[in-house]
Design a protein that fits this description.
about 170 residues; mainly alpha
Length: about 170
């Protein structure tokens, strides 16, 4: 679990770095646009940065339950059924992210073969597909480990890098 937590921390760092870089880029581009000199390639960098920001943040959001949850399958009164429900949800998510991992690998190979790149700056797509593959793969491993803990009727360990972000209750 330590290696998985480290991988999540690295991907989270990439995600946060992309957020900061995109903020600086967009503000700078807006200022230069007002001066009549827009930055060339901002759209290319923004598209790639948003993909990195989103996909690299998914493992952290999933591990810390920071994602949006829609309860399509209601909770049950019996604990065993709730555990089966949690495993089922992770199996479905594992299938989706496993497919995303595989398809990112396939697309990385195709992008290299056909020389796919951004329009303006001609940044190759292949490295970004590999990052997508790694991020989706790490989250697939998170889901797999959580399924194992749930199947063994053991609590899912907390993410080592998570901090308590709760607001203290006033006394």
């Amino acid at each position: 679990m330590v290696a998985l937590d480290r991988a999540i921390a690295v991907l989270t760092g990439i995600s946060v770095s992309m957020l900061v870089a995109l903020t600086v880029l967009i503000v700078t581009d807006a200022l230069f646009r007002e001066l009549g000199v827009p930055l060339e390639g901002t759209r290319d960098l923004t598209s790639l940065g948003l993909a990195m920001l989103t996909l690299c943040g998914i493992p952290y959001a999933g591990k810390t339950d920071g994602h949006i949850v829609v309860d399509l399958i209601p909770e049950f009164r019996r604990e065993g059924l709730n555990r089966a429900r949690a495993i089922f949800i992770r199996v479905v998510a594992f299938g989706i992210f496993g497919l995303l991992t595989f398809q990112s690998w396939v697309r990385a190979d195709e992008a290299a073969e056909f020389g796919e790149a951004t329009n303006i700056l001609e940044i190759p797509f292949q490295p970004f597909f590999f990052v997508m593959m790694i991020a989706a793969g790490v989250y697939s491993l998170v889901l797999l480990s959580e399924m194992a803990f749930l199947a063994a009727n053991r609590p899912i360990p907390e993410f080592e890098g998570a901090r308590d972000r709760s607001i203290p209750a006033s006394e």
